[in-house]
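Handoff note, outgoing to incoming analyst
You'll be picking up this chain. Sequence as last confirmed:
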Amino acid sequence: MLETVDLSLKLSKEDYKQWLPRLKEDLRILQQQAREAGLPVIILFEGWDASGKGDSISQLLDRLDPRGFRVHPISAPIQEELYRPFLWRFWTKVPGRGQIAIFDRSWYGRVLVERVDKLCTPEQWHQAYQEINEFERQLVDDGTVIVKFWLHISQKEQKRRFRQCEKDRFMKWKVTKEDWKHHKQYDTYLRVTEEMLERTSTHYAPWTIIEATDRRFRRVKIFKTICEAIQTGLNKNRTRAATHEDIHEQIEVTALKDMPSVLDRVDLSLSLEPAEYRKRLMKGQVRLRELEYECFRRRMPVVIVYEGWDAAGKGGNIKRVTQNLDPRGYSVTPIAAPTGDEKTHHYLWRFWKQLPKAGHIAIFDRSWYGRVMVERIEGFCTEAEWRRAFQEINEFERHLYHFGTVIVKFWLHISKEEQLARFEERKTIEYKSYKLTDEDWRNREKWDAYREAVVDMLQRTSTTYAPWTVVEGNCKLWARIKAVETIIDAIEKGLQREDRPELTE
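Most recent structure output, in case you need it:
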């Protein structure tokens, strides 16, 4: 692939003076239009050392409004980043709607530098190709424009530029021993780069190879490519807006069919005597504390998700799980409707930010499954968005699993009659009354629609690496013990997992 690139391409001074100012002005206008349209843009620079990435970024920023972009220089991951899934540090940097994110190096480091220098295992960089493609597809499906550049120069040209920099006392600091090491590995990097380009150039996020020997040619081609990509993104945005149907009409959930489902097989009569409950709870809490330490020692993260009907007992359940844990080793994150910055990003963004670092436990009271339940039923997203979310969620959880995360997911199930009884109880007990809201009553009126959505969710997102556990919740004592013992079993199996990656300091 790269051997066919014509590195002799040049642009005359006259053409350069004609084209570049015009393109810079076009980009300034397109930035404003993207901001008004709520179009997020990612511009990614990869390429050989000394190929002109820094100069290209500087030229790019010349006419952009600084309030509308952020530059992210990416270096080797620090310890905090190593203790998270590899895409975590990039998910936290994706732009909000109307913003531009410029990456100087990127997530492709795992399949380039980390791969060649053996800073990651073969399993990790093999997985990275799939995870990168999924990551980029999710962002593009959500409306993000992704522009990816590989700046290409020959080994001979790279050497010439290194020597030139070393002669300049103001520039010589830029050329390091690591740069010369990579220069000697040019052929190895060339082979690895070609594989990367082939495996990650997709129709939704294609690579653009920049012939970077001539500075003028490089600059103009980069500007032209970015302008065309943003304009195409804006046109797609307008098309979607023009054809957009009312999402409340789109989300017509059919009436519940008389067909057996996973919820029909749940035995809600299961119960536990108080004495047996206290005995098993004490034993379970002691074991959880032991496992919390073992997770920390082995650097194994744990994610526990609680979903369920209103008044199903999620709060009381979480309290019993955490009652004997070291508070420094876990966090409980209650999830409500997205606000502020959360609304401007991909819906998974706020959950990526809340993931636990290796060795810690994160408990979510409601979760990313809101997209395929509340947002689906209430019309807060389009039908295309919630249908797409099933795949996105499975991919998200698989990324966590590849990192070594234990994922435990609970659906707390109660009958419609039991829910009504608990609602009425809340009305009469002062310290519980705040829990009962008008929204709870509105949701109850849509019980059948929510039930159908729950069945879809359980069937389409219960995987071998992140299975659902349906908890029979009419008896709170039974539900609490089942949750505690399920978590214990999952963590013990996670610690025994032979293919779990071991983290190093």
